[in-house]
Amino acid sequence: MKHTVSVKTKLIPLFCLALLHFALHARGAEPVPDKLVVLTFDDSVASHYSVVRPILKEYGFSATFFITEGFSFRTNKTDYMTWEQIAALHREGFEIGNHTRDHMGVTPNTLSKLEEQIEAIAAKCRAHGIPEPTSFAYPGNAITPAAFPILRRLGFKLARRGGAPEEPYEGGRGFAYEPQKDHPLYIPSAGDARPDWTLGNFQRAVYQAKNGRIAVLQFHGAPDNEHPWVHTPPERFREYMKYLHDHEYRVVALRDVIRFVAPQAYSLDPLEIIAERKAQNE
Length: 282
Known about the structure:
Layout lengths: L1 H25 L9 E7 L4 H13 L4 E4 L15 H9 L3 E4 L12 H17 L7 E3 L10 H6 L4 E3 L30 E2 L6 H8 L8 E5 L14 H13 L3 E3 L17 H12 L1
Helix pairs in contact: 2-7
């Protein structure tokens, strides 16, 4: 009798695990491991190639580089990458994402221009042997869910925003991405690095990568001469990457999180989880 009870006791957890596994795969999503971090870099800054790239390669990290020809990209090759360098990033295995041609904020008033802005970068990618991007980042963190139909029609699977509106833009704080709650085209940044950040600020962002959440980090240049308010000192950036390596974080590009996204996630109300987080802050 004791033996029978023991066998049943052991079988019940196994049965539950099997049901969970079946449920996850039935909806097309894998469970999210702890300590999963996504690195993203905005604005085509020259230091992405000269400073960021060798550090990422040293640690074996992947990343997404969101490309725009905005600001002084076309004429200032001291502070911005060339398309040849962007193509080299692709050949080395990094993801190239779309950040619009002119770094255009995505608002209800600019939606009529969004397809043209996106297609301009897609065309440059094709011309340089880079696949058309399937990841998008909202320029200037201006966001509207009204962009979803356009992004979906143009083939985007994932889109990253900033930490706002849950957190004020100025501090660069944010929340980790929850694939079961966040719309895949409204992925929040867990942190948007700033020049006055310390290792403690960085740790707060990546510590959120647990319990089904993914820490998506937003960087600009290291250095970023044209945008000093989002600059990251090169020595500080190296400190952050060493921390990820030493604490055994898994560091990937944004495209790599698609395996954790269920098809029905595209039907989520993007504002529901935002309201929930803002309530937590009150």
